[in-house]
Amino acid sequence: MLHDVTDATHQYISLLDGDQREHAVRAVTDDDLRHRWAYTPGTRPGLVLGELRRDQRKALHGMLATVLSPHAYAQAATVMALEDVLDHREGGNRDRHNGDFWTVLFGTPNGDEPWGWRVEGHHLSVNVVVADGRVSATPFFLGANPARVTYRGRVVGQPLRLEEELARELLDRMGPTARSLAVVSDTAPHDIRSGNSPRVSPSEPVGVTPAQLGKSAGELLVDIVRFYVDRLAFELADEEFARIDPERLHFSWEGSLRRGEGHYYRVQGPELLIEYDNTANEANHVHTVWRRHSGDFGDDLLTTHYGASRHTVVRGVAQNG
Quick one: where's region Disordered (predicted)? Predict the structure, then answer.
């Protein structure tokens, strides 16, 4: 998997001219930029997709597809295409376009130094860091507006459908007693609570735990976590899932239980935060995010890498002295 990501990144870089590379590549040690992410409309550092040549756009999509699972890549591509749908609904007043997505490279995959990249725009943010043969890919944000496109009440398109349906199925399976613990508020927040904060501090977990659920509901809660983790390519998803302690998960729901009304849920673990919010535009505007407290933006990988490098240098000086 690492080989594929590296090759795809090399392919993208090889197609950039000198001026493009100057705008695209920043230092992986630029912590401020690496942590400065967003899922709202607006320009970003780096190169914008709409101004790239066809072969460069295809290479960028190829790079993204190596990190994502097939279904998540399809979700991401649909989210990007929805910008044109939204622009049409708004009468073009905000000048949205499916080319309004940016990529910035953090270093390049040459030698042993860490590197990474971000692909980002409205409702999409994929943050990748590679260090010492390991890959980090959080925060991972997907949103959709409109969340559902319908014809005579029937859904034609809904890229984040399972994110909602699995949580509703969990509420049904857990029964009334556990549901009374899971639903912690009748009012949903207007957005995911973590927003685009550069770091997420672990908060007091709320809601229901696996121990308070029956076997079937407890298994489904783990399946929901696995579904979010499986946004990543198979090998990487397995590594991420292995970090999670299923017994220490909490699930909470806020807002209405009725379809078509604003709702929000959160899954928490010691190193896990999943948030889903659908409140805006008459509950037809979804935001979802998956984050790792100590591992967002590859911080844990970079700390380990540079810590080991400093140890090696100090030990070498001592031996030579």
Answer: 182-206
